[in-house]
Design brief:
By secondary structure, the protein is α/β, with parallel strands linked by helices. The chain has one domain (3-229): 3-Layer(aba) Sandwich (Rossmann fold), CATH 3.40.50. The protein is 29% helix and 27% strand. It contains eight helices and ten strands. It has an eight-stranded mixed beta sheet with strand order 5-4-3-6-7-9-8-10, sandwiched between helices. Strands 1-2 form a two-stranded antiparallel sheet. β4, α4 (71-82) and β5 (90-93) form a beta-alpha-beta unit. α2 (24-32) runs parallel beside α3 (51-58). The longest helix is centred in the N-terminal third of the chain and has 12 residues, at 71-82. It is globular and about 50 Å long. The chain starts with a strand and ends in a 7-residue tail after the last helix.
Length: 236
């Protein structure tokens, strides 16, 4: 999936100063997330350049804590957040989430984590942290979330589709219950390549399953994609 420059309709970031280069699937994840009225505190784990935090701030007045381990990404996120109209809602921390300490129990925790574990590593340290789970495995991520999540809170995560069964098995063994699930594919002829989850600590009666295709047979954005992303993309 190619990268695109993301801009909010409610404010405009000058591209020559602090443009956010982000992936379409991350934008879809943020747009798909629902922030309920009772959500007062949100934690964004591995916030990158601040995309999810800013998207959630656009749809909620919640207090948001954003944690990013990589210093360069943290500085970009800090600049993006400070340049936005939501700067008072978001606090950003340049820390390892496994070492992150807070007295809060969050109503909503979101994470777009490193995609790979136990695979060939990238050449640079930054790429390793971003693309490989050198610091944050799925197992220790789940354990940390269980400590930080409010009893009635929810956790949302974006993963490669090939890790869906692994994640669901870990949910089963860690008493986490899937509430919503979104399967993403690039075109009607592609297989699913990403999966989004919302899970909670309380048992749910059934899983709400959604599917979304980004482009149609004519390589045009689908109506479902446009409807979901239109509040965030300037040119849809």
């Amino acid at each position: 999936m190619s990268n695109t420059y993301f801009q909010f309709k409610q404010f405009k970031i000058e591209q020559d100063k602090c443009a956010m280069k982000v992936c379409t699937d991350s934008c879809l994840f943020g747009a798909w997330l629902h922030v309920e009225e009772n959500v007062k505190t949100i934690l964004d784990i591995g916030c990158g350049t601040g995309l999810l935090s800013l998207m959630l701030a656009q749809k909620s007045a919640s207090k948001i804590d954003a944690v990013e381990i990589d210093s360069s990404a943290y500085l970009q996120a800090k600049q993006n957040i400070e340049s936005s109209i939501f700067s008072n809602n978001i606090s950003i921390f340049n820390e390892d989430i496994l070492q992150f300490s807070t007295k809060l129990n969050y109503d909503l925790i979101v994470c777009n984590p490193p995609f790979y574990e136990n695979e060939k590593e990238s050449n640079t340290h930054g790429e390793k942290l971003a693309k490989h789970s050198l610091k944050l495995t799925l197992e220790n991520l789940i354990q940390k979330i269980k400590k930080l999540l409010h009893t009635n809170g929810k956790f949302a995560i974006l993963l490669p589709y090939f890790r869906a069964m692994e994640f669901e098995n870990k949910c089963n063994t860690n008493q986490l219950y899937i509430e919503r699930k979104l399967l993403l594919k690039q075109t009607p002829t592609h297989t699913y390549f990403r999966v989004c989850y919302v899970v909670c600590l309380q048992k749910t009666n059934e899983i709400q399953l959604d599917t979304l295709t980004i482009k149609d047979e004519n390589n045009e954005y689908t109506s479902s994609f446009i409807s979901l992303l239109k509040p965030y993309y300037l040119n849809l």
